[in-house]
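Notebook entry, structure prediction.
Reason for the run: the old model in the group folder had no record of what sequence produced it. Starting over properly, with the input documented here first.
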Amino acid sequence: MTPGIDADRIEAIRTTVTADVERGRYWGAAIKVARAGEVVLDLAVGTADAARTQPIRTDTVFSVLSVTKAFVNILVLRAVEAGRFALTTPMTEIVPEYSGAPRETATIFHFLTHTTGVPALWEMRPGMALDDLSEAVEAVCERALGTNPPGLRCDYSPMANHVLLGEALRRTDPEKRAIADILREDLLEPLGMTDTALGIKPHMRARHAVPDFRGTVPIKHLSSQVDGDNGLFEAESQEAVWMGGASTTADLLALADMVRRGGVSANGRRLLAPRTLELARRNWTGDLPNELYRTVALRNGYEPAPAYLGLGFSLRGERIVRHQFGTLTTPSTFGNYGAGSCMFWIDPELDLVFVALTAGLLPQADNITRFQTLSDLAVAAAV
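New structure, fully documented this time:
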């Protein structure tokens, strides 16, 4: 075992996940933990489905839901570094259709921090297929209406923010590429993330854990290519830049490790500048609550916490609160997560990275409790 990791304590993660799976809390999980860039736990437990027909493997491909937003966020920060637009650029300068007070004053900064003044909207048009980014942009511009001036509230945006951030990348791309090509060529290929894409590519399909929402998400995710209420997650190619990504723990570890290394990939390619990451890891939402998680807290009888949002990253923050990143991680810990099933975080002070992808979506409160426990177990193993 790598120096700095207690072998018995890191195995407590395996014991806990196995117990969760055996009692049917969720179906299975793949987890990687790394310290100082070296993998110290590579775990695969349980199955991808309730019927237990598809064992989880260390290379299982998961639909990563809102972790997809992390890919877009990094590309947006790269675009800012390249001078294609600025954090202070109003979205309407890039997407003029997004007009109308008060939303028209929202800047790229507001979109990255979920403070645009538009309330959370899980779908724009019931019955709408979600494959095509242009159609999503049209729907967002029509339906995502502002209710507050930007900057006053933190309302997590399930869809609208990243539809428009993805469109901003596409419209300012010098080569006029499709969004999936931008993602692949500017992020995934430089990081060697060969099992990550918008859609389930042929080489990924046999290993894909089709998401089981278990009634926790009351909307459909329709595709024009694949039938079914959640056909989007089985389409080979699509442009759902807010939740349509698929990946593995190995690929997400490569992404997280690039961030841990200050914006440089393992093969030495720089994707982000250190100063950009320094700004991205600051708390830009102050004491504002994230209204989505404020509602979760109130419904489950505990105190709402600050949103703790940086520029595209969620932060652990200073207070001891219920948090997916744990209570033992240091305040500088940051990362991203997706609804009830997946997350990654980087603790720069402990030089620790945690990546977890699970099958059998959990309700938000139970998911927070689950990942808080597993995160604390990872930190407890760091000595």
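Summary: The CA atoms of residues 29 and 358 lie 4 Å apart.
The old model has been moved to the deprecated folder.
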